[in-house]
């Protein structure tokens, strides 16, 4: 997948604000387990919390359900947060080498704020990565509840993108009976084709 440009991020940010009322959001992130036949002598390496063997597709998705960046091939036993920290996507975001735009104000004459991606509780909280408040912080704080609601709406695009991907490419509805290296290529090809179809829609 080509490296995202600053212009692509800005377009994505404008769409998240327009569609989901979440300013300065450039992408939503999540992981999806792609079920595979357990490779010979793999032990529990690919065994996930759902009780099947898988590799993980980690994806950044824009407001219109297109994949901006993906990392595929991590072992199913690893958590989304752990995969993110070790992935090229996570490292490039940490090092600020993924062309994410400079901070910009949320409203005219406001102070500049960072552009962010949104994820669920599995991801670490960072300056550029927002996650929901835990339920223990929601008791009597209306602002936290509103924030969680808005973040959830914006974040849902990545889950929907995975749903569209699986509906289009039904091969993902069962476990793939090929070597993990080939699974990586199949997933990448399907994500690229998914983007082409979204662009034509």
Automatic annotation (TrEMBL):
<dbReference type="GO" id="GO:0005634">
    <property type="term" value="C:nucleus"/>
</dbReference>
<keyword id="KW-0479">Metal-binding</keyword>
<dbReference type="InterPro" id="IPR027806">
    <property type="entry name" value="HARBI1_dom"/>
</dbReference>
<dbReference type="Pfam" id="PF13359">
    <property type="entry name" value="DDE_Tnp_4"/>
</dbReference>
<keyword id="KW-0539">Nucleus</keyword>
<dbReference type="GO" id="GO:0046872">
    <property type="term" value="F:metal ion binding"/>
</dbReference>
<protein>
    <recommendedName>
        <fullName>DDE Tnp4 domain-containing protein</fullName>
    </recommendedName>
</protein>
<keyword id="KW-0378">Hydrolase</keyword>
<dbReference type="GO" id="GO:0004518">
    <property type="term" value="F:nuclease activity"/>
</dbReference>
<dbReference type="GO" id="GO:0016787">
    <property type="term" value="F:hydrolase activity"/>
</dbReference>
<comment type="similarity">
    <text>Belongs to the HARBI1 family.</text>
</comment>
<feature type="domain" description="DDE Tnp4">
    <location>
        <begin position="29"/>
        <end position="195"/>
    </location>
</feature>
<keyword id="KW-0540">Nuclease</keyword>
<dbReference type="InterPro" id="IPR045249">
    <property type="entry name" value="HARBI1-like"/>
</dbReference>
